[in-house]
Design a protein that fits this description.
alpha+beta, 32% strand
Length: 131
């Protein structure tokens, strides 16, 4: 099994409803994001997936979140937890690459986007992944 990983970052503000603690107040993070792709076979050029394509998709999705208040994004249902952010980025990468004819969906027979990690801090990570 082969695996590639790219990373990007963005800064954003958020607050968590239904949470009783300091995170219920508006605050911000400098998020670090990793996207992981796995697959059993390499293409004719000896690659699982062109880093440029994956990195471009990840950066595009992160750019849509950069310097925003995440609570304003309906996807997060007023609770933009790191887990929901990871899922949003996963869906965004799949959509962005699909528009270019690259299928990394769970149904793909070649390579799959299998995980997105979102770090709120260097020691706090949430992951959305498929099995």
């Amino acid at each position: 099994m082969y695996e590639v990983r790219v990373e990007a970052d963005f800064a954003a503000a958020h607050f968590l409803r239904d949470y009783h603690g300091k995170c219920e107040n508006l605050h911000g993070h400098n998020y670090q994001v990793f996207a992981h792709v796995r697959g059993p076979e390499l293409d004719e050029g000896g690659m699982l997936l062109d880093f440029t394509e994956l990195k471009g998709a990840l950066r595009s999705v992160c750019k849509s979140l950069d310097h925003t208040c995440l609570n304003d994004n309906a996807y997060f249902k007023q609770n933009p937890s790191a887990e929901r952010i990871a899922h949003f980025i996963y869906d965004g990468i799949i959509s962005c690459l699909s528009e270019k004819g690259i299928d990394l969906s769970p149904a793909s027979k070649h390579a799959k986007l299998f995980a997105v990690d979102v770090f709120e801090t260097p020691t706090s990570r949430a992951r959305y992944r498929i099995d």
